Amino acid sequence: MSFVEYSELIQEGDVVIIFMGHDSMMPIKVQSGAQTQTRYGVIRHSSDLIGQRFGSKVTCSKGGWVYVLHPTPELWTINLPHRTQILYTTDIANITLMLELKPGSVVCESGTGSGSLSHSILRTIAPTGHLHTVEFHSQRAEKAMQEFKEHKVSHLVTVRNQDVCKDGFGITGVADAVFLDIPSPWEAISHAKKALKYKGGRLCSFSPCIEQVQRTCEALLDHGFEEICTLEVLLRVHDVRTVTLPLPDFGPEEYYADSTQTTSDISQEDVNTSVICRTATPPREMAGHTGYLTFSSKPRDQRCE
Ligand SMILES: C[S@@+](CC[C@H](N)C(=O)[O-])C[C@H]1O[C@@H](n2cnc3c(N)ncnc32)[C@H](O)[C@@H]1O
């Protein structure tokens, strides 16, 4: 199992997502001889998991069943152990699109945090790209390295335990894109510029407060970045329900005289009845603020042509 390649069968050491419902999942590491307790009973790793197909239905000791899913970055984001605030898939999808990430991209990221975004970046840039991720909290950097190894993506990522605002990303002129999720991104813009390719590249900074956005935009302008644009991505979940609606009033009966349908074709019952239909309504209020995403482009460095 790897986060960047699909495997058919579950093996010792794999991470498996135990799916008990859309809002009830947990990640487990498969170890022969180990057991995992669920509300449906025990799952025995040796007999119930190892050698089974990813996606199978597994019956637990109390007779209930769960699905055993192959991990994906999306499933990891909603199941990972939180060491920090994390980015969720709605923002991650836009970051991936707007940074123009693709297989082979070289990307810089800081801070690594809990590695939620890192896993999505890695899946997108595999098999030939590379992620340089910088985290100044030593235990978080250590834990991220360990997870990348367990998830078989460590060949695609370099974790540096340093302050990105002081020491930068540790590379010069090779990145296609830079992503910042730190409290003072404006202090890292010069380092981002240095890390990006001489022919240019894309930058994104995530900040929850508009004052942080303002300072970052000023720093981006000072360093010659172009196409600066800030987005807030809101997930609008529509509520699907059944409603009863009165039939529309098409006016007095004589109006039917000109139509192909005559009044005798329409029964009084039809005219007076309501229709039952399925409808979807958006929420009246949106309490979904995560943060602002500020994107910009570094233009080609004229001096290096
Ligand atoms: C909100 S978390 C990042 C979460 C990450 N984007 C994710 O999706 O899991 C911010 C991280 O940045 C780190 N950090 C803050 N300032 C930093 C700096 N100057 N250099 C390196 N890391 C920094 C913090 O230690 C923290 O782990």
In words, what does this structure look like?
- S-adenosyl-L-methionine binds at residues 114-117, 135, 181.
- Belongs to the class I-like SAM-binding methyltransferase superfamily. TRM61 family.
- Its main location: nucleus.
- This protein is an alpha/beta fold.
- It is built from 9 helices and 15 strands.
- 33% of the residues are buried.
- Residues 84-87, 110-111, 113-117, 134-137, 140, 163-165, 181-183 line the site of S-adenosylmethionine.
- The site of S-adenosylmethionine (SAM) has 22 residues, from helix 4 and helix 6.
Concise description?
This protein has 305 residues and is α/β, with parallel strands linked by helices. It has helices at 45-49, 73-79, 89-98, 116-125, 138-150, 164-167, 189-195, 210-222, 268-272, and strands at 15-21, 24-29, 35-38, 41-44, 57-59, 65-69, 106-110, 130-134, 157-160, 177-180, 201-207, 226-232, 239-246, 274-281, 292-298. Helix 2 (73-79) packs antiparallel against helix 4.
